[in-house]
Structure formats: C-alpha cells, structure tokens
Amino acid sequence: MTKTTAITIWSGCDSDVEEAINAVIQAWGPYSAKSRRFSIFRLLREQLDPVWFDFCQRTSALSCEKLNQAWARYQNGRAFRGQQSCQELPLKGASPPSLLAQYLGFNELDWFLKTVARNAAERDIDLIPTLDSLRELAIACRTKQPKRLGKVRLLPGKEKCRYCDQLTELAVALANDDDSGLGRSSLYCSAHKPKKVLSDAVGGKYQKARRSQGAFDQELERLDFQSWAGIKSAYAKSGNPLVDEFIWRLSVHRRLTHEQHSEKLGTLETKLRWEARMMVDRRMTDRKKEIVALLCSGITQIEAAKQLGLKSRQAISKALQSIHADYRLDLHCQVAN
Ligand SMILES: [Zn+2]
Questions:
Q1: Ligand 1 centroid to 196 CA: how many Å?
Q2: Residue 206 CA, ligand 1 centroid: distance in Å
Q3: What does the H/E/C string look like for 71-132?
Q4: What is the pLDDT along the chain (337 residues), one digit of tens a residue?
Q5: I need a surface site. Which of 64, 82, 145, 220 has the fewest CB within 10 A?
C-alpha cells in the first residue's frame, strides 16, 4: 500500500502558492532529505522558492524588512532551545524556505512561518491562510527527513557537490566564516557550479558534468553496492558480470569497501564519489571495464577479443591505449583468482 499525502490548503490561500504546494506534493514520492538525487530541499528550491519570493514581493507585510523582523523574533524565541547554529549561519528571514529547511529542519521552518504569521496578523489578516498552508507543507515534509536531522545531518559545511567529492561552494564559504554565503551554491562546488559570480556564462565544467550526470550516479551506485558487499565477491549490480568484476577488483585494489575501511563513513563516501567522478571523466566505459576484467583473469588479448565478439586483437590493444593507467588492474591486480 502506498502512503498518500494529503495536506490542508486553507481557503483564501494565494493561488500561486497553492499551485506550488500542489506541485511539490505531486512530485514528492521519491524525494527525501537523505537522497542526493531526489533531495526534498531541491524540490522545494525548484517549486516553492521562486513562488514564495514572488508572493513576498507582492505583499507589503512580507517585505525583506518585515521578514527579517520576524526572523529576529523567531531567533529570540528559539535561542534558548539550543539552536545556536542559526545565529552562526548567514541565514535571514528573507532566505529561501528551502535553505531554512535544509539547515534548520522542517520543524524550525514551521516555527519561523508561525512567527511570520503572528507578525503579519497585526497588519494583514488575509495572509494567514497562505502562511498556514505553507506550514502544513512544512509539517508534511517532516516525514521526509530523518528524525535526528536537526542534530546530525544538518551540520552546515559538510554538503558535497552534486557532481564530485568536493564540498559545495556554500559549505566552503561557511567553513571560512565567509558571510556572503547566500550567493553561494548549496548544490555544487565552485568548479561545477552553473554560473560564475558576476557573469552570465554557464560554467563549462557544469555542462560537462551535467551531461555525464547519469553516468556519475550509476558509477557511484555501483561502487556503493560493492563497498557494502566487501572484498569477497562482486556485487556492483550493474547487470553485466564483467563490469561487476571490474568494480569489485577496483574497489578491493583501492580499499573502497567498508570491510577495508576503518575510518568514518563520511571519508569513504568522499572516496567513492571521487572514484566515480574520475571513472566518468577519464571515460572508463563499460566496454573498457569488460576488457580489463577479462585480462585480469589471465587470458590473452586474442581470447578476450573473441569473448567480447570483437573482430581482432587490435581492437583490444587500441582500447587498452585509451585506458588510464590507474585502471589497468590486469597489470597490478591484487585480487587472487
Ligand atoms: Zn563538484
């Protein structure tokens, strides 16, 4: 049985906001606070943030100044509850809701909206249905986040780039006490971010990474499966036994399994992400993986060509020339056959 989500949208809610809430609810099945690919925060960033800003601009009671007043009031009310982090963060009342949710959790987003509603009620009672509908959404989103989100997962400054193992631009800015954090990307590192500051040019590396997004996700998933399976058997679940074998040999060779790894989980994840990025950037295709996997088992290039249905040995040697030395596991293989 699938869980259906129903949230109340109060009558009198702004129609654009209502539409955005509905769009979030419709798309939100696979989205969660844990998933990189289907991040609930990204969903909110795409669907809700622009509408929210638009709504605030149209509404005098929700000007930047008023929102920041509400923010100060909210912080005063929450400071005693041990939420010091919100004072250190470059967040403001006018920050995007998705960012508030990401760093403070949905509970706190709800509290903040409640404060906004309380402030606004003194001036514009018509705002209440819209704000209350948004609070409903925030409360519904709580089911999408791990219980201890506020304490563990939300440590700012730890988020990884969507496309590689580097910290996001925002995370780096936060770590360096750079308070211009709000202009920074919370999704990408500085190399992979779509637009450079003060320029409209789309970043070249972003475009390249975006084109290979599917490949990166796929390699990362394979490495992740193998990392949990350990060193004994191939378990990359690629659907191709030779590719599985390559990932297995590579993981063992590079010590990318939890079995071989005694450090914190976070460090292994960083290594897996780096490895996935490298495999994609160095164009280590599945065909090349098959070739290396076959050669690892000790057979000749002629036999390998035959097994892969290639016309000649030359095809193999040509492919080998384009394989980065790091992936020539057949030359320095440590997995015993
Ligand atoms: Zn990156």
A1: 13
A2: 8
A3: HHHHHHHHHCCCCCHHHHCCCCCCCCHHHHHHHHCHHHHHHHHHHHHHHHHCCCHHHHHHHH
A4: 334 556 777 888 888 888 888 888 888 777 777 666 777 888 888 888 888 888 888 887 788 888 888 888 887 776 545 444 445 556 677 778 888 887 777 888 888 888 888 877 777 777 888 888 888 888 888 777 655 433 333 345 567 888 888 888 877 877 776 655 456 777 788 888 876 555 556 677 777 888 888 899 899 999 989 988 888 889 998 999 999 999 999 999 999 988 888 766 668 888 999 999 999 999 999 999 999 999 998 899 999 999 999 888 899 999 999 999 999 998 875 444 4
A5: 82
